[in-house]
Design a protein that fits this description.
Layout: H1 3-19, H2 21-41, E1 49-55, H3 60-71, E2 75-78, H4 84-92, E3 98-102, H5 106-112, E4 115-122, H6 126-146, E5 153-160, H7 168-198, H8 211-239, H9 249-274, H10 277-294, H11 307-312, H12 317-331, H13 339-362
Parallel strand pairs: 1-2, 1-3, 4-5
Antiparallel strand pairs: 3-4
Helix pairs in contact: 2-10, 7-8, 7-9, 7-10, 7-12, 8-9, 9-10, 9-12, 9-13, 12-13
């Protein structure tokens, strides 16, 4: 091995990196970004989980029990519900993760050594439901230790929308977001950058094809592929993984089409800004796939993340799509019922359309 040749090649590569500050900055910032994302976003415990409470006993014993839950760092107790129907609606719309019901005869049955309370859980996220139940049991155990004896208290829990508590029922709808993010953003980011590298954009002047038609024609095949992936993923979810599709199929297709357009426009914007395929693929991976995996609520509950990252998730399109997908599959809700989640996704689509048009016009891609 000739060390001079190695040194010369290394010097050449260093000069190449220094002449391309965007790639150099990405190489330096990506490990740091991944470190902070994995370090802060991945949490397997719960903190200030919203749990509703219905106190039918209205006794000193029931108030002591609820005060114990309220004092725990794991729960943020909500007592604004006055009926079981209101509790179910709160769980259905994702306002709370669970509900604690203290029966009317709680105080008397506690003295007799056979008291019971009911815990209703949102099973859309099976792991979170399991954590809420385990933390509730810890609260009861701590209460018994303070009193010198474990109280004769049993929790009867009931899980809605995922009675079997299988994680795949919550994971499979979220996987669809990851698949569409890869097809929509990564592949779209490569196509325009490739044409810019080959210099084919200059040849458009000799053809009757307008720049707008060129850009639109580039995106259509990837939109079709993305929707085909949605069909395959939905069929596999229902018939292979036994995930119930309780909501409207047209509603699922509609929100999926909007999400796919959003990530495709993200990829197009990245492609125009990057100018080459390598940089475009790296940026699209960092800005679409990783946030969709870590910051969308797909695996880890957003409410368990630090406050700063919770605000960052509002900029992640997959956050809204994962919520809509799970709600349509498991809860049978419509996009209109969750307009507070659907509207931000539509606003993102409008903003990205304007940004892509403006940037493409500056670079001469659009008239």
């Amino acid at each position: 091995m000739n060390l001079q040749h190695v040194r010369a090649m290394a010097r050449k590569e260093w000069w190449h990196l220094l002449r391309d500050p965007r790639s150099l900055a990405l190489m330096l910032l990506m490990p740091t970004m991944l470190l902070f994302l994995f370090g802060y976003a991945i949490r397997l415990d719960i903190s200030q989980a919203p749990v509703a409470a219905l106190d039918l006993s209205r006794s000193a014993e029931s108030r002591q029990l609820l005060a114990r839950f309220d004092a725990s760092h794991a729960f943020a107790l909500v007592r604004a519900h006055d009926s079981r129907r209101a509790l179910r609606q709160a769980i259905q719309h994702g306002e709370v993760w669970g509900a604690l019901i203290v029966p009317q005869d709680y105080a008397r049955r506690l003295q007799e050594g056979r008291a019971r309370v009911q815990l209703l859980l949102d099973g859309v996220d099976a792991n979170t439901a399991r954590l809420v139940r385990n933390y509730a049991l810890l609260v009861l155990q701590a209460l018994g230790e303070e009193q010198g004896d474990v109280p004769a208290l049993v929790i009867r829990d009931r899980v809605y929308y995922n009675e079997t508590r299988e994680s795949r029922l919550a994971i499979v709808p979220g996987v669809i977001a990851l698949l569409m993010a890869v097809i929509g953003a990564l592949m779209t980011s490569l196509t325009i950058a490739r044409e810019m590298e080959l210099g084919n954009l200059v040849m458009l002047r000799t053809t009757p094809l307008t720049r707008g038609e060129f850009l639109f024609g580039k995106l259509v095949p990837y939109f079709v592929l993305g929707m085909l992936d949605l069909v395959v993923a939905t069929a596999a979810a229902v018939w292979v993984f036994d995930v119930p599709l309780r909501g409207s199929l047209p509603g699922l297709v509609g929100v999926s089409a909007v999400f796919l357009l959003v990530v495709m426009l993200q990829g197009a914007l990245i492609s125009i800004l990057a100018g080459n395929q390598l940089l475009a693929s790296q940026i699209s991976l960092v800005q679409t796939f990783l946030p969709a995996f870590l910051l969308s609520g797909f695996v880890f509950a957003i409410e368990n993340m630090p406050v700063v990252l919770q605000y960052v998730t509002y900029l992640v399109p997959a956050r809204y799509y994962v919520t809509l997908s799970k709600a349509i599959f498991l809860k049978g809700l419509t996009p209109l019922a969750l307009w507070g989640v659907t509207l931000p996704l539509l606003l993102m689509l409008l903003i990205l359309v304007l940004m892509v048009r403006r940037r493409a016009r500056k670079l001469g891609l659009l008239p």
